[in-house]
Amino acid sequence: MESKGLQEALPPLRAQEALVESNRCIFCYDAPCVHACPTHIDIPRFIKKISTENLKGAARTILEANLLGATCARVCPVQELCEGACVLGADHKPIAIGRLQRFAMDEVPDRGPAVIPIAPPSGYKVAVAGSGPAGLSCAGELAKRGHAVTVFEKRELAGGLSTYGIIGLREPVETSLDEARMIEGLGVRIETNSELGRDFGLPDLQGRFDAVFLSVGLGAIAEMKIAGEELIIDGLEYIEQSKMNGIAMRIGKKVTVIGAGNTAIDCATIAKRLGSGQVTMIYRRSAEEMTAYPHEYEFVKNEGVEFRFLTQPVKVLASAGQVTGLRCVRMELGAPDASGRRSAHPVAGSEFTLPADQVVKAVGQRQPWDELGLARSRGFIQVNEDFETSVPGIFAGGDCVRARGSASTVMAVQDGKLAAAAIHERITQGAN
To answer: 121, 231, 283, 296: which one has the fewest Cβ atoms less than 10 Å from its Cβ?
Structure first.
């Protein structure tokens, strides 16, 4: 589905390449890479199995800790996590852990019960709202324990942000859909076009199931409340168009992307690779405060994307409904704000105009779940250490609970795994 130019950035390892790379690993005792992995995959063990050409064993080792191993192999910031902790990285090149994990996952396409043991049916039923990484992880872990799980997904395709919101350079649509099918192969039922709050409510799920897990993610990109904002494109919609419509999407000749997180960088990359002559990213703080990973920042600079730091948009300029520019003001930094980053303040009399015929915003997402009647923390669903919400029997995980810490695919997978263990304990112990 992805456009030409947005196919996966790294080619898959060939069998001989994987064998050579796996044999570079020194199989550390108490390996730092394992501690750096949020899902704590036994990395030396699966690499050792690749080195002995036991690919099914390698896949099983990965899936024991992370059911979405194929996705995480592609989208995890391995430079900051496992590969960043590799002991060979200090004096040599770190082991290509992400690419080896992808090799093991892709070379064992049948990752159902033949690889993942399934317990006998327990008689318990669990509902999962949302089929993103947290939801699929939780569903699969519960299915492994013998529970009957139904996943409700509001969109036409399963996978959540992995399917719709991660640039094809990192994860193609088909990879995400393959993992959803793998979770179905464990006995999970996925019902698409079924939305919480539209087609059913929480009381309905509570009446039909023994427990509920919410992995509802976040909403659209937040509003900036500036004049002409209706002409700005939502960054997640921009990414979705690049994955679903391909060449049919419109790319401006001069594209301005507002924001400096990983989603903003994905949007800038799409614009550049699909033909924009000039792509500029603007951010109200400095490079030191940007939330994008350092390696992503270097990547997009090498793509030819320009940066304007300490710049805040104040108005979209247009003629006959077509964007012609973005009115901006220069900023200066002050004391740290609630986010821990230095606050930004406009400089009087510093307004200027950036020429643009397309403006995309990626400035964080809204938390749209007030109507659920659950306690909140900084706008996110509040959960305890077992991922249980303020309502007993209703659990939540993923981006919708990420009031603190980093929001990422691998953290969502870990949330789902830990929540599944807590749900299993609750429903089985409650019957004893």
So the answer is: 121
